[in-house]
Design goal:
Blueprint lengths: L18 H11 L4 E6 L6 E5 H17 L6 E5 L4 H14 L1 E5 L5 H11 L3 E4 L4 H7 L8 E4 L9 E3 H13 L15 E6 L9 E5 H11 L10 E4 L6 H14 L2 E4 L6 H8 L3 E4 L1 H18 L2 H16 L10 H6 L6 E4 L6 H9 L3 E7 L6 E4 L12 E2 L3 E6 L7 E7 L5 E2 L3 H7 E2 L2 E10 L5 E6 L4 E2 L5 E2 L1 H9 L4 E10 L6 E9 L1 H8 L4 H16 L8 E6 L14 H9 L1
Parallel strand pairs: 1-11, 3-4, 3-5, 5-6, 6-7, 10-11, 10-12, 12-13, 13-14, 26-27
Antiparallel strand pairs: 1-2, 8-9, 9-19, 14-15, 15-16, 17-18, 18-21, 20-21, 21-22, 23-24, 25-26
C-alpha cells in the first residue's frame, strides 16, 4: 500500500513527558478498557486486566519497593513475558529507581557478570528462571533482596511480589504517597539495557524517560492502534523493540495486550485473544508465510492462490482494496482477526510483505537499535514501501555519510530518542556519539521519496582486493530465497594464491523440504542440489559477489532471543 495522499499525514496524539505520565493519563482515558489479557494457568482462558487495575498494581508495587529502601537503586527484572514483568518495570522506573532488564536465556555466569556490572540492589524474577537466578546471585554482594513473581510468602530476603503488592496497598490506604507523588527526572537514566552478545562484549545502553516516551509519541504519529485492537506480545520484553514499540505504544494508545504463552502457541493464542496486531521478526513471519503456501500446496489450491495474489496485487496498485473474503482460509489460519503485522530487528524478504498485503493484511517494516530507544525509521500504516524500512521518525534527523558512488553510506541519526550513552564506557560512547549524532554502524541509502533502505552492517562489509564493497546480508538474502536453504552465513577471505577475495557460505539446509522433494539423499547428493541452487543465484549477481565455496552444517546457527543469527560467533568458530 503506497497511498500518496497520506504522504504528509500524521496521526495526532497527546504529548507525554515520561512513562509515569503515560500510565496515569492512559488510566484516566481508558479506565475500564482492557489493558492486558493474561492467563492465570497454562492453557487456561484469557482474563482481562483494566487500565485502572494496571495503574493500581504499579502504584502498589512501587510504594512497597520504596518502603524497602530501594529508592534510587538499580533493580533487575528477568523472566518470560508476563503481566508481572511489565508492572515491575513500570513500578521501578516511575518513582523507585533504575530498571535493568535481563535476557532470561542467558547462562548463570553471564547473568552474574551483568548483575555485578550493573551493581543491582535487588532482582525480580519468575520461578521459571529461579535456578539460574539463585545460582547467579552467589557472590554478588550488592544484592539485598530477591523478589519472586510467583511465591505467596516472604522467606528471609527472598520476598514475594504478591505479598509486596498487598503491603503497598496497605501503605497507600494509610496515606503513603511517596511513590504516587514521586517526581520524574525525564533526562536521567531510568533503564539500563545490555545489548546481546557475550558478557565481555555486551554494552550497557542508558535510556531516559525522554528517550523512551519521545519514541512512543513520535512512532504513534505513523502507526495507529485503538482500544478495539488486541496486540499479541510474542517477542521478549527485555528488548526495546517489543517493549517500546508494542507494550508501551499499546498502553499509550489504549490498545489491549495479550501475553502469548510461547512461540508454539502463537496461532492458538491469536484465535483465543482475537488478536489484531502483532510485532515480529523476519524468521517468524517468513516461517508463517512458508506454512501458508505449504498448506496451499498440500490442498491443491496453490495455483489458485497464486493467481488470487497476483490479481490482488494489481487491484491494490489501482487502489482498490483487496478483499479478505478471497483469502478467508489464510485469515482463519492467523486467528481470524489479524489486520496489522510489523516486522523489525532484521531484514525481511519484501516478497513476504507483498504477499501478506495482497492477502488482506497490512504489513510493513521498521528499523532501529537499542541505542535509539529503538525506532529510527518506520513505514506509515497508510503509506509504505515493502522493501524499505520506512521514513525517519518525526523528531529524528537521519543522514547518510561517507557515501559511495551508489549513494550508500553509514546511517547516523539525531533526536530525543538517542541514548544518554554506554554505562561506564566513555570511550565507546565517544566513538558512537559524535556531536549528538548516533553513528549506527549500519549502511543504507534514501530513495527519491525519502524512504530509507538498509544495505548491511558496517562491520560485516567484505572489501575486495580491488576495493569493491560486498554486503554479506545481500548475498544471504538471495541464497535464503531457495526452498532448500533454511539459514546461511556469508563471509569472505583473501586467497593468497589467486589474489582474489573468495566469497564463502555456510548453509543450514531445509532438510525437511529437501527430503520432501528428493527423498533420502546422501551428503554428496545434497551438495549437488545446493550447488545447482547457488549457481542459479550467482547468475543474478555480479562476478565479484558470487559464492565460490560453501559448506553444509547439520545444526541451526546459534541465535539471539530475537532470532538473529550470532554472525560473528558463527564466523569465528568457522575460522578456528
Amino acid at each position: 500500500m503506497n497511498r500518496h495522499k497520506f504522504k504528509n499525514a500524521e496521526y495526532s496524539f497527546r504529548p507525554i513527558s515520561d512513562l509515569k505520565d503515560m500510565v496515569n493519563t492512559s488510566a484516566a482515558l481508558y479506565s475500564d478498557k482492557r489493558a492486558f489479557l493474561v492467563k492465570n494457568a497454562p492453557g487456561g482462558t484469557y482474563v482481562p486486566i483494566t487500565y485502572t487495575q494496571l495503574k493500581t498494581d504499579i502504584d502498589e508495587l512501587g510504594t512497597a519497593l520504596m518502603d524497602l529502601g530501594l529508592s534510587g537503586q538499580k533493580i533487575a527484572v528477568i523472566g518470560e513475558n508476563r503481566y508481572e514483568w511489565v508492572i515491575t518495570y513500570l513500578a521501578i522506573v516511575n518513582g523507585v529507581g533504575i530498571v535493568v532488564p535481563l535476557d532470561r536465556e542467558l547462562p548463570v555466569e553471564e547473568v552474574r557478570n551483568l548483575l555485578k556490572r550493573a551493581e543491582v540492589s535487588a532482582i525480580v524474577y519468575s520461578s521459571k528462571v529461579g535456578f539460574v537466578v539463585e545460582e547467579a546471585i552467589k557472590g554478588v554482594e550488592s544484592i539485598d533482596y530477591i523478589i519472586n513473581m510467583d511465591t505467596l510468602e516472604h522467606t528471609g530476603n527472598k520476598l514475594s511480589l504478591k505479598k509486596l503488592q498487598r503491603a503497598g496497598k496497605r501503605l497507600i490506604l494509610e496515606g503513603n504517597r511517596n511513590f504516587t507523588d514521586a517526581e520524574i527526572d525525564r533526562e536521567a537514566m531510568c533503564s539500563l539495557l545490555f545489548t546481546s552478545g557475550t558478557t565481555g562484549l555486551a554494552k550497557g545502553v542508558m535510556l531516559s524517560h525522554k528517550n523512551l516516551t519521545s519514541n512512543v509519541y513520535n512512532m504513534s504519529k505513523f502507526v495507529k492502534v485503538t482500544h478495539n485492537d488486541v496486540g499479541l506480545s510474542v517477542l521478549p520484553m527485555h528488548h526495546t523493540y517489543e517493549l517500546t514499540c508494542h507494550v508501551f505504544t499499546c498502553i499509550y494508545q489504549g490498545c489491549c495486550i495479550a501475553i502469548c504463552e510461547g512461540l508454539k502457541y502463537i496461532v492458538k493464542n491469536m484465535a483465543e485473544a482475537k488478536a489484531t496486531v502483532m510485532l515480529g521478526v523476519p524468521l517468524l513471519f517468513e516461517s508463517m508465510h512458508k506454512k501458508i503456501w505449504k498448506k496451499a500446496e498440500a490442498s491443491g489450491k496453490a495455483d489458485k492462490m497464486r493467481t488470487a495474489v497476483q490479481i490482488s496485487k494489481k487491484l491494490g496498485f489501482l487502489k482498490i482494496k483487496s478483499t479478505k473474503k478471497l483469502f478467508k482460509a489464510v485469515h482463519q489460519a492467523m486467528g481470524g482477526h489479524m489486520r496489522l503485522l510489523i516486522s523489525g530487528a532484521a531484514a525481511i524478504d519484501p516478497e513476504v510483505i507483498e504477499n501478506f498485503n495482497a492477502m488482506g493484511f497490512t504489513m510493513f517494516q521498521g528499523y532501529g537499535m537499542t541505542e535509539n530507544s529503538p525506532i529510527i525509521s518506520v513505514n506509515k500504516d497508510r503509506y509504505f514501501k515493502t522493501a524499505s524500512v520506512g521514513l525517519p521518525l518525526p523528531g529524528t534527523e537521519v543522514q547518510i555519510i561517507n557515501k559511495d558512488e551508489n549513494g550508500v553510506g553509514e546511517i547516523i541519526c539525531k533526536g530525543d530518542s538517542v541514548m544518554i550513552g554506554y554505562y561506564k564506557d566513555p570511550e565507546e560512547t565517544k566513538r558512537v556519539l559524535i556531536d549528538g549524532w548516533l553513528h549506527t554502524g549500519d549502511y543504507g541509502y534514501f530513495d527519491e521519496d525519502g524512504f530509507l533502505y538498509i544495505s548491511g552492517r558496517k562491520k560485516n562489509v567484505i572489501v575486495t582486493k580491488n576495493g569493491k564493497n560486498i554486503f554479506p546480508e545481500e548475498v544471504e538474502f538471495y541464497l535464503s530465497r531457495s526452498d532448500n536453504i533454511k539459514e546461511v552465513i556469508v563471509w569472505g577471505y583473501d586467497d593468497e594464491k589467486s589474489g582474489d577475495t573468495v566469497i564463502c557460505a555456510e548453509i543450514y539446509p531445509d532438510y525437511e523440504a529437501v527430503e520432501e522433494k528428493y527423498g533420502k539423499i546422501s551428503k554428496d547428493e545434497l551438495k549437488r542440489v545446493l550447488k545447482k541452487d547457488i549457481d542459479a543465484i550467482n547468475e543474478l549477481m555480479p562476478l565479484y559477489k558470487r559464492v565460490k565455496r560453501f559448506e553444509i552444517r547439520e545444526e541451526e546457527f546459534e541465535k539471539t532471543t530475537t532470532k538473529k543469527i550470532k554472525r560473528h560467533a558463527a564466523i569465528h568458530n568457522r575460522m578456528l
